[in-house]
Amino acid sequence: MSDTSGPGPGPGPLLVPSADTILLQLAHPEAEVCRAELAAFAELESSPDHLHTFRLTDVGLWNARAAGLDAERVIDVLDRYSAAPVPHATQLAVADAMVRFGRVVIEGDPQREHDADGTGALAVRTGTSDLLDELLNDPTVVGLLGQRLGPARAALPEMNRGRLKQALVKLRLPADDQAALSPGLPFEIPLGAELELRPYQRQAVDSWLPSGQGVIVLPCGAGKTVTAIAAASAVGARTLVLVTSDASLRQWQRELGRFTHVDPDNIGVYAARRKDVRPITIATYHVMSTRRDGELRHLDLIQSGDWGLVIYDEVHLLPSAVFQMTAGIQSRRRLGLTATLIREDGRQADVFSLVGPKRFDVPWRDLELQGWLAPATCTEVRVIPSEAERLTHARAGGQAKARVAAGIEAKVAVVAELVARHHGEPTIVIGTYLEGLESLAESLGAPLVTGATPSAERLTLFDDLREGRLGVLVVSKVANFSLDLPEVSVAIQVSGTFGSRQEEAQRLGRILRPKADRRQAHFYTVVARDTVEQEYAQRRQVFLAEQGYAYEIIDAGDLAATVKPVVGD
Questions:
Q1: At the top level of CATH, which class does the domain 367-562 belong to?
Q2: What 3-state DSSP class applies to 492?
Q3: Which fold has domain 199-362?
Q4: 185: which of 142, 314, 493, 524 lies 20 to 30 Å off by Cα?
């Protein structure tokens, strides 16, 4: 294939071999600008060195439609960059998916009595009476709609709003929910002078605010919490924040205290040991998902708090129980925060239907080039298992193979070499399997933090690393989320949760905050060659490629020649 410019005379960098598959040739001079345009509507599926494979999905195209793109714009991008005519089947698939968004509209019904806040009397409007007939007779929709109000309109009980949206997504008819949202009880959240939003944070708030529902996608270290605080201030109402862990809960408390003038007595914590409901309440997903006799114990908190805004931190991790709760509160403003909309369980459509469409996204590398994230290099170092380890791996079954691969003895020396090469730079060694981490911690003479580490001890170790009293810390996957260590610039992962792109995003994000001395961040993955880890690593690295990062693959034996000391010898 020629390397001449894409959007002009001569073949471009794209091939579109089937209705939902797009191939991007990386050697082409227009590959990078083309990748940026593809990211608005296509999902990167695999990323070998020379050719990236993108997939067109319903949710990706619906998110693009909600963001203002239409089928004509998407097809134009494919036409401009394609080396050959775009198949007619692809054009039809794009047009069919994107025209489906908004064929069903949820709106207020002016003919019926509303609640005092303007919500409660809802109607569904379809483009044609035939489509409404189909819905009224579909077994997944029967019982969710009320009486027919006209040829193409039907009543919708408020309690069924979320369940209907879920059902419609499964029918590939995602609803455009335009009905009024409850303002909730007013509560002023004045921002402190210290909070000066960056341009992209302001743009994110402005993109979300008009609809009051949807997801903001920002890299770890780019200030998702601060952005959400600014959104809550703009709303000016009682706010419920749902978070992943106690560590995240404490981070939210700290950031609210730092960036707002809200009286601490008005910030409540709703967790396992303390349940204090205040105008701003922070609760963990774990507590919200707790059941007693099969029933969700804390459902009343989310349903009867007169909340004007519900914030879902790390929305890609929403547990099923919180999805169930969210389906019942569709009249409230909803803001999802995440570094990646990837869900390993495939429930992206539920996030789309219940929290809302993606309202803002920005490639990580763009923020790096603007100086908002630390520049990062990504390197995979492959080690060779011994013959005995190969045999043990071959005999292991299922998930046991990953555990065997994670504990390959040669990893210890490689990690020690990487730590030595970056002596003087705050470093975390992160993995999944505790026995391997214990061995590494002992070998490095470094502390180990796991889920069993007492909270006070954990916080002390994090503070020591943050303040420079500790150079290396070994951490389990408890550090995947809400670990604020701005000066850490080296992360070495020795094992992971299978092929999780989501986890890759979180771990890279631990080291991307800009450093005071502007030094580069280094992200290493130590992988056992010819094991399941190598396959998992290929899948995880798709995320890095999707964000525009290049990564190098080297053998452990070549490490000394390729990894140079960053601090003086």
A1: alpha beta
A2: strand
A3: Rossmann fold (3.40.50)
A4: 314
